[in-house]
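Weekly puzzle thread! Below is a chain. First person to post its structure in token form gets bragging rights.
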Amino acid sequence: MEIRFLLACCQTDPSVDDIEFIRTYLSTPSLSLLALNADTPIVKTKEGCSTITTTASRHGVLPLVYKTLKNLQPVISNPIEDPDTGSTDSQTDNTITIHHHYHSLVTELKAHYQAIAHRNMLMSAELIKILNLLRENHIEALAFKGPTLAQIAYGNITLRQFGDLDILVDEKDAYKAGKLMSKNGHTSIFPLNILSNKICLHTAKEFSFISVPGSVHTELHWRLFEKKYNISLFSYAVEQKCQSVRINGQEISTLQNELLLVYLCLHGAKHAFERIEWICDIDRLIRVSEVDWGSAVSLAEQSHSKRSFYLGLSLVHALFHTTLPATLMPSIQNEAIQTLHTMTLAQMTNKKAERSDFEKNRETFAYQSKLFDTKCDMLRFRLSTFFKISTNDCQTFKLPKQLKLLYLILRPIRLASSYIDRLFHST
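Winning reply:
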């Protein structure tokens, strides 16, 4: 029921049924996150938060839940007159329970929302600073996700949770950009020479930095996805598919709506849409943007990612009633897409914390294998995963370019060693 409650709170315009479900949820004393009576505070987790606050934060939708509950205060918390009997909910114990739970929850959510809003504004200022630094040194860069997505899809940088900044540069500029950032208050646990190693650049897609003041996490990307996903679309010059968004009075380059939509579907599918936030992003972007659907479908086809694209659309249509072109519905209702849709919802409601990392990784791999449009793409993904060259391999075993194929045997050796070690410690 927690997931259903979060989905009701994340609707752009909650329906009568959504509002009634929220009221019912807040009046149910048997739920673990709620008090057993109106005189007891909401049950807290070991982190000191109610379980609904913890779950909303984990799904990246805490600001939306807070804003919805706050806006619905007159409907949820105040007495509602029954038009047939003339009686009001205030005459029932349920209304007292709802009133108490509502105010306890909103008060708690408000504190977390304010912290998120403050953090988002800090990170937005840091993003502008980094982009200006790169621009001043003749490096073209664009931002995606984070503040730019919040501004485009939600109209407010405080309404979307994000934990880091994502900046995309041309691969040939990656080392120069990384060097500039390291000289201007950004550090990394990884050696910077990774960005000058052609094998590392070919196999990886990003490099992580932490700013010394503020501890803002920044991902410097030179492609949007690893090559094992066979998404060739994103390896070309993305500035051809750009738009600008204004944040804090400054224009920031980001992905064009159609490319952003396809990216959001692919990114969410890659992670099995385990966070409601990733589905909300797609819904909000479609609602507020002019989308050239022919161009979006073409981009999905070019990137061999039609299943991921249609899965994302299927989820927003079912969960958020997003209006989609009638011409796309046959593709969305395809049996393979609906199978993935069912798997996604099942995984979203599973308590993954109760399973080991090995089990989670195995489930994710099995899920990702079903996302590919052709058996050839699926086979390529599986082989690339098994024989993946890591940046650690490039640093530990510095092979000349002529012998780079030897890296391919390192992955299965490491996997076998890890598996044997796990078996040894489990006996």
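Puzzle host: Confirmed. Bonus trivia for everyone else. The two ends are 38 Å apart (CA to CA).
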